[in-house]
Amino acid sequence: MRLKQALAAAFVVGLAYAVAQAHHAVQAQFDVNQTVEKKGTLVKIDWINPHTYMHFDVTEEGATTRYAIESLGVTGLRRAGIDSKSSFQVGSTFSFVINPSRNGSPTGLLVTLVFPDGRRFDVRNTDTGQVGGR
Amino acid sequence: MASSRRRNERSLYTLTLTAISLAGGLILGGLLSGTISLAQAPSSPAPSAPAAQPPTPRAPDGSPDLTGIWIPAVRGGGASRYNEQGGETVFAARDSSFENFENDNALRRLGDRNKPLYKPEHWAKVRENDANGNELDPEFKCRPYGVPRMGAPSQIVQTKDQVVLLYAGGFAGQNTFRVVPTDGRPHNQARVTQETWKGDPVGHWEGDTLVIETIGFTDESWLHKSGYFHGFKLRVVERLTRTGNTLRWVATVEDPEVLLEPWTMNPVTRVLDARPDAFVAEDLPCEERDLQHMVTKVRSG
């Protein structure tokens, strides 16, 4: 399976710590105990707070669904080295691992993003740099 | 004190993990540098709080010069680790799961013994706010943090008669500013009556500490994520103390209408970012899109 090959080939991002105080508990919205792997064409990215969104067209069994994938806030992405819209090529095919929505909507929380060339971005091993709890 | 002990424990923990994450960040930067530019430009390592502080810079009038970019001394808070054997992310929670990572962080937040003491008739509203925070918390709706929830400034520009405080960051944070006169003038009553999120500040020096008193607030902002609301009579006293290249911020809030006594919030320490290419990043627009998909009221830490 291409995704697994990509995951195996990709160098895992080093140890880091994740955010403790988040904007909200993502488990209210996503099933954090489940992961789903998808492959889709990047349609657009919304560079907004409190979370960025990546929109993918995913074609499965002949039907195309647009997924809105929630990721870190802009601060977190900046700290991870992703700080501009040119970081992603719209129209390229990405594989991604998400925690699926709990209400059945085509949304998800990004766990891992695999770039077209196999590079891997592990969100949960990324220092988001947020100091929350205020 | 329990709170200082907790802070010490947290500092040790996060210091260790910060060192680990710096290594991770460098690896990631190298991996992605082909098509992705590195974070926030500066190539030199971020400063940390050294044990011995250099002399505190002074303004011509002898007061400490607070001018500079001030960044968190400790970033983030909790912890995850990557288990190289199993390829699983291990979270600092009772069972290493992400679910309880969130739950435990919420418990830590609620377990903070430094709470404002509300009059008995107001506790129900605090509980209501906290229980329904996903809907009621101004932060969640991309509204301003306001004073004092916005915390310590990201940058300070100090002149003879005024101190300009610049703010950035946070989940819903939008770049904002405060201009604090330090020439001894009283509050501007026209401004006080506008009842805003940032109020009307005036500042003065007490020894080496800049003391900012702010009144004239709206009652829409919260003091803290845990549902701590306030009324129009809120008065906030912030103390900013520079020692060498560290800045300590602490705020005390008074609201005789709803609080039994003044509440001193947990202090914040920031460190000077002296890198010549350091800058305060622009906050992007905030849009809330989560609430419509939420199926529980669970909140985070």
Blueprint (SSEs and pairs):
The complex is a heterodimer of chains A (134) and B (301).
Chain A: H1 2-9, E1 36-46, E2 53-60, E3 63-70, H2 74-79, E4 93-100, E5 107-114, E6 120-122
Chain B: H1 2-32, E1 68-72, E2 80-83, E3 88-91, H2 98-111, H3 123-131, H4 133-136, E4 155-158, E5 162-167, E6 176-181, H5 189-192, E7 200-206, E8 209-215, E9 235-243, E10 246-254, E11 263-264, E12 268-272
Antiparallel strand pairs in B: 1-4, 1-12, 2-3, 4-5, 5-6, 7-8, 8-9, 9-10, 10-11, 10-12
User: What is the overall shape of chain A?
Assistant: globular
Estimated radius of gyration of chain A: 14 Å
Q: What is the CATH top level name of the domain at 115-272 in chain B?
A: Mainly Beta
Number of helices of chain A: 2
Strands side by side in the biggest sheet of chain A: 1-2-3-5-4
- List the uncertain runs of chain A: 3-21, 129-133
Characterise the protein shown here.
The complex is a heterodimer of chains A (134) and B (301). By secondary structure, chain A is mainly β. Chain A has one domain: Beta Barrel (OB fold (Dihydrolipoamide Acetyltransferase, E2P)). Helix content of chain A is 10%, strand content 34%. Chain A has a 5-stranded mixed barrel with strand order 1-2-3-5-4. In chain A, a hairpin with a 6-residue loop joins strand 4 (93-100) and strand 5. Chain B is of the alpha+beta class. Among the domains of chain B are: 1-32; 115-272, Beta Barrel (Lipocalin), CATH 2.40.128. In chain B, strands 1, 4, 5, 6, 7, 8, 9, 10, 11 and 12 form a 10-stranded antiparallel beta sheet that branches. Chain B has a two-stranded antiparallel sheet with strand order 2-3. Mean pLDDT of chain B is 82; it is low at 1-44. Classes of the chains: A mainly beta (134), B alpha+beta (301). At the A-B interface, helix 2 of A face helix 1, strand 2 and helix 2 of B.
